[in-house]
Amino acid sequence: MLSFFWIVWFADGTAISQFHPETGEEIPFRDVEKLGKQIVKAGWYPFPPRLIRMLASRGTMVMPLPAHKKVEVELGPDCELILKRVGMLSISIEGRPRRETYYVIGRKRNDNLDVAVLDPKGRRLGRDGFI
Question: Is-above-0.90 flag for pTM?
Answer without folding.
Answer: no
